[in-house]
Model the fold of this input.
Amino acid sequence: MAIFFWPAILAKTYLKYRISIMCVMFMERKSSACLVALMLLFIGGNVSASDFDPDGLTADQLILELNNSDRDVQKMAAHALWEIGDLRAICPLISMLKYPEGRIRNCDVEAFEKTNIKNPQAFDLLILALNDSDSNVREGAAVGLGWLRDHRAVDPLIQTLNDSDSNVQEAAAIGLSLLGNPQAVNPLILALNDSDSGVRRAAAISLSWLEAPQAVDPLILALNDSNSDVREAAALGLGWLKDPHAFDSLILTLNDSDGGVREAAVLGLSWFKDPRAFDPLILMLNDSDGGVREAAVLGLGWLKDLQAVDSLILALNDSDRKVRETAAQSLDWLEDPQAIDSLILALNDSDHEVRETAALALGGVGDPRAVCPLISALNDPNSEVRCGAADALGWIGDTRAVDPLILALNDSDNVVRYVTATALGRIGDPRAIDSLILALNDSDSSVRWEAGSALIKIGSIAFDPLILALNSSNGDMREGAARVLGSTGDPRALDPLILALNDSDSGVISWATWGLIKIGDPRAVDPLILALNNSNNDVRWEAARALGCIGGTKAVDPLILALNDSNSLVRRNAASALGDIGDPKAVDPLILALNDTNFGVRRAAALALGDIGDPKAVDPLILALNDTIFYVRKAALRSLGGIITSFDSEQNSPRPVIYVSNVSNWL
Done:
């Protein structure tokens, strides 16, 4: 099995290589339970039925759908319960295991891997599934037990290494590696001699994950396995373990007849970061296999030995585009100005990924000689190259790039515009202010955000244009201006932001409030108190939030009145604000708010009473332990605990301690 994609993965996330190997291992069996489980865990999954949409359904409704006559609907319901993580799904999912169809039972196993991660019934259920007559279910159960991280699963999984189905054996090996229990080491070493090559490969992978020193010699022996996939896994595993005894064996493996094994050996040697690997890696640049050459180029970059620069420059002309791309990446890591001219030439490579990586590498080296070629690359037909050029120019920071980057703010690609805004922020040249303010009106929200961030970096010199933008007819531009003005903390922004509290756009109001909090000027308190009577709900609840931060005792009475506001968000924020201020005058009104019709208000009131810490709130909070909403009960319990622990020893009351000690009655 070739691992041609490995260097590209490892260049960015090599510390996660163990997970990647697991995915590689299972990708060949697309029908297996393990693949579905892994893909769901890493990227989620999409299932479909002709007329069923689980989005928006409650857990109760989804549990009912587990009894639907349509098996696809059942599967979708199980997946949705998996996403929700509702423990009430346990019994229905247990029942679902009784269906004769293996795929339905397997879906149940997947659900339990997530839904019941801390529930003891999940363990028992998966142990039962480990003996299911359907191999797919056993396979999924083995991986599921690994994800549960319950070490009681070690012995059952060790026994499953002898399952009659090789796929199940492989899953058991991976499950054991997920558990990370050293008891699994010797059984996995024995599995290196299994008659099935897939099992041997899984054992090699799992032993490297367990990082067991006693696995080194068996893995060295596995470098001579008859199956190339096993040899490949052993080479990668030995590289991960980095045991000095394995170094010479990996050097010998560079002569393996299989390109994938040689590539794995190169990567394994590279992970040692041992200077002795330098000469062998240089020799592997002449290997007939492109993947091997790519791995060697990558390894030389990791070694960061400047003696490799000339060889890496030559690799920029390799016939394999991935080798050229990785050579540019490695030259980026070495940051040697000697490579500048060659990287500039690589901006004209026939492959856009090579051009992009060369541009990024030039930014990493940071030599001003690259500025003009990178400016030209802003017009490359490929958007990824244009992104790389803009990013590089931002890192170099040469003001010659400002005007071309301003033009690039109008690029047809939103990612290019985003990166360009970032670059202009790094350079910090005032010439970009007007264009960045216009970009606050970009059609893409991420570009608008980054334009604002760039203006924040440029600083107070952008103040006057931002004040004008705050009066723009465009809501997005006003919102961006409010955010930037607030972020600066400039006292000059106080009055404009107070006026912005009356804006028709909720986003502008929110950022104006945030800005007033950040500035922290008490002159904002009276306007915020007035804003509590604004007809706009957004204005009132934002004002309540701000008063909790900067209002002080002056804001207490107005916030108490706001506890009776018609809008629940205003009442909730008022309750939270009173808790932040901590004035005992608010205790009685907050006790009344424990009976509010909205559970968010009741929760905020309970937490606020805990923040104030007045013993008068103990009895009402004890009553709140009977609230129908879990979050209110949890807040009441937390506040009771805080109040009780704050009592002086002579005032300590046994009654609340007795009530609170039986936590399970309320949670």
